[in-house]
Design goal:
This protein is an alpha/beta fold. It has one domain (38-302): Alpha/Beta hydrolase fold, catalytic domain (Rossmann fold, 3-Layer(aba) Sandwich). The chain has 9 helices and 8 strands. The protein has helices at 2-26, 111-125, 144-154, 165-169, 204-209, 217-222, 250-261, 285-299, 304-310; strands at 36-46, 49-57, 64-70, 95-99, 132-142, 176-180, 236-241, 266-271. The protein has an 8-stranded mixed β-sheet, sandwiched between helices. Strand 1 and strand 2 (49-57) form a beta hairpin. Helix 2 (111-125) crosses helix 3. It starts with a helix and ends with a helix. 44% of the residues are buried. The model is unreliable at 5-26 and 304-311 (pLDDT under 50).
């Protein structure tokens, strides 16, 4: 009898814990007063698959600049929920969107970048409805998300990834890009010591491409934001830890150098002692985030009055 009661108790506890976790996942994250939160808006469909984004909008009568957050997770995990560090921009008069995209276990390259471009196009298409300024769109991402926002930044003047109908109707370019420790040239990721073998068939890059990267060099070139660099690209800010052993600091150096050569405004900030995700960095997380806030303020032209209106 005691065993049966114990089993029933454990089952009830498990169900309650699962329900509580589901409630936490569905509950909107805390945001400043006056911010409207629209969760799980469909921005595109692939067959029966609905692609969604979350939009956070400060109260403002004027068109609001927008920063689009793209999460990391090796292109095989992660979530749009919460909008990551970009949510701090709500305190500075920005709207923030956080997008989901098809992960590598569902669809290989170029699905993820096609999805991100569709999200930008959707938001620009709906800019009047949501009081967004379509001429002041920024993109911010970390790790795999850093790679995807770099792709957004350098492919704004090409249409090779405009496969969703919305992207064929409305431009998907952005006006500023903040890349946090994103990869660029997959084929050179093993040039420096790493915690993983990037050439392995099981590496995140190989899974993203759909096969071992060194056996799919053309695909890697197509997935490299450096391939598309042109003088028309928007300003970039790169932040990367010099002790990163998943995505070597050199990956941002390569992209930064290519942008410089093309005459694009680009800044590379070395985060001293920073590992992947800036773990162990000499700077605080707040100091690092402030660099990104300052960048978007400077590039998307937020003045003091618009900040006050957005608070």
């Amino acid at each position: 009898m005691r065993s049966i009661c114990l089993i029933i108790f454990l089952l009830i506890s498990t169900i309650q814990a699962g329900f509580a976790q589901q409630q936490r996942q569905q509950r909107p994250p805390q945001v400043p007063a006056g911010v409207t939160v629209d969760l799980d808006m469909e921005y595109a469909k692939v067959g029966d698959r609905s692609l969604k984004l979350d939009l956070y909008r400060p109260k403002s009568e004027a068109p609001t600049p927008l920063v689009i957050w793209v999460h990391g997770g090796g292109w095989q995990g992660g979530s749009k929920r919460g909008a990551g560090p970009a949510r701090v921009l709500l305190q500075h008069g920005f709207a923030v969107a956080s997008v989901e995209y098809r992960l590598s276990g569902e669809a290989i390259f170029p699905a993820a970048i096609e999805d991100c471009k569709a999200a930008v196009s959707f938001l620009r298409n709906q800019s009047e409805r949501f009081h967004l300024d379509p001429n002041r769109f920024g993109a911010w991402g970390s790790s795999a998300g850093g790679h995807l926002v770099a792709m957004l930044g350098t492919t704004g003047d090409v249409d090779v990834f405009e496969t969703h109908p919305i992207s064929q109707q409305t431009p998907s370019h952005v006006q500023a890009v903040c890349n946090w420790f994103g990869p660029s040239d997959f084929l050179r990721m093993n040039d420096f010591p790493s915690n993983i073998d990037h050439n392995s068939p099981d590496s995140p890059e190989s899974k993203f491409i759909g096969g071992p990267i060194q056996q799919n060099r053309d695909k890697c070139r197509e997935a490299n934001p450096i391939t598309y660099v042109s003088p028309q690209d928007p300003p970039f800010l790169h932040l990367h830890g010099d002790k990163d052993r998943l995505v070597a600091y050199n990956q941002s150096e390569l992209l930064h150098a290519a942008l410089q050569k093309a005459g694009v405004a680009t800044t590379l900030h070395k985060v001293i002692d920073g590992g992947h995700g800036f773990r162990g960095a000499a700077e605080s997380r707040e100091q690092i985030a402030q660099r990104s806030i300052d960048f978007f303020n400077n590039q998307l032209k937020i003045n003091q009055s618009s900040q006050n209106n957005g608070d």
